[in-house]
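Q: Please design a sequence for this.
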């Protein structure tokens, strides 16, 4: 466990905050053994994102894309929430208003106990038919490499994620923007801040007066806008935040 002193001025701002928000990216799941997208050994390093996470990519090679999601589903099913997910799940009890926004599709936040999660990029659990949009509710075992077909119309089945070039779910993006505009404390955790419109959110928060904190072992394109940056793994830094907030609040 890292030994660092969290700045008191930041902690005092956080403890007084009414409206705390967190944006997470793939990095929050890295300590659960789920590869990120852009780190050197990341998922994209082996595959071309546009090729796999796009409608064109899917339509030109449905089985390859389906296989890739089945591969990721298997890894996710064996993964466990890490101390970073668990610390974020605890935050909902520490502030008058707390909102979690995630770019991740792995649902580890929910498995750690977070609720009302704003999922900007959908989720890897649900599937639906590309032709008639009917949800595909059959159980899909990971060994089944065959891409399933819609029971209603025979169309191809796809995961309920947002691919590149696709609009984000309208309500999720609306809610995330208004959370960023009204937050008085905003964490950007485990994201390279390279994918839009999600990457705008910490800047929107900052421009609306929020105190913004980035937690990421690496610097990103938004690090310079942050009030504080912690270049450590989220699973090590976040429990320190929880301990210090509880200490200041005199909670056990
Ligand atoms: C849209 C779901 C509007 C699928 C994902 C050209 C063509 C087409 C589109 C575009 C274009 N140019 C720009 C765009 C817009 C595009 C975009 O932003 N592209 C980028 C690459 C430039 N955005 C879109 O297409 C979005 N839609 O704009 O629609 C529109 C539509 C139609 C017509 C007009 C306009 C849709 C974007 C959503 C794509 N779907 N995922 C799936 O998961 O399979 S994106 C994918 O990237 C994941 O969701 C991922 O979460 C997300 C962001 O990446 P990160 O989460 O930040 O992950 P990354 O690996 O990058 O970084 C991890 C970080 O963690 C690193 O910084 C690392 O240092 C850190 N880390 C590592 N370990 C730890 C850690 N941090 C803390 N603790 C640790 N232990
Ligand atoms: Zn169908």
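A: Design:
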């Amino acid at each position: 466990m890292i030994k660092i002193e969290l700045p008191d001025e930041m902690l005092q701002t956080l403890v007084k905050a009414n409206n705390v928000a967190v944006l997470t990216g793939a990095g929050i799941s890295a300590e659960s053994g789920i590869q990120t997208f852009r780190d050197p050994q990341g998922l994209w390093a082996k595959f071309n994102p546009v090729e796999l996470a796009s409608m064109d990519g899917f339509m030109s090679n449905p089985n390859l894309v389906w296989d890739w999601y089945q591969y990721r589903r298997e890894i996710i099913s064996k993964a466990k929430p890490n101390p970073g997910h668990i610390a974020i799940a605890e935050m909902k009890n520490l502030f008058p208003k707390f909102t979690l926004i995630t770019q991740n599709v792995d649902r580890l936040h929910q498995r750690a106990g977070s609720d009302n999660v704003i999922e900007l990029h959908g989720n890897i659990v649900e599937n639906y038919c590309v032709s008639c949009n009917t949800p595909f509710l059959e159980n899909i075992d990971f060994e089944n490499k065959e891409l399933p077909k819609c029971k209603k119309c025979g169309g191809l089945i796809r995961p309920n994620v947002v691919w590149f070039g696709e609009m984000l779910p309208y309500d999720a993006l609306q809610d995330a923007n208004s959370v960023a505009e009204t937050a008085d404390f905003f964490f950007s955790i485990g994201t390279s801040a390279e994918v839009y419109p999600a990457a705008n959110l910490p800047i929107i928060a900052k421009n609306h007066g929020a105190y913004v904190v980035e937690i990421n072992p690496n610097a990103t394109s938004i690090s310079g806008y942050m009030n504080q940056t912690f270049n450590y793994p989220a699973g090590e830094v976040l429990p320190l935040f929880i301990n210090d907030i509880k200490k200041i609040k005199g909670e056990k």
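Q: Thanks. Anything notable?
A: The mean pLDDT is 94. The CA atoms of residues 2 and 201 lie 28 Å apart.
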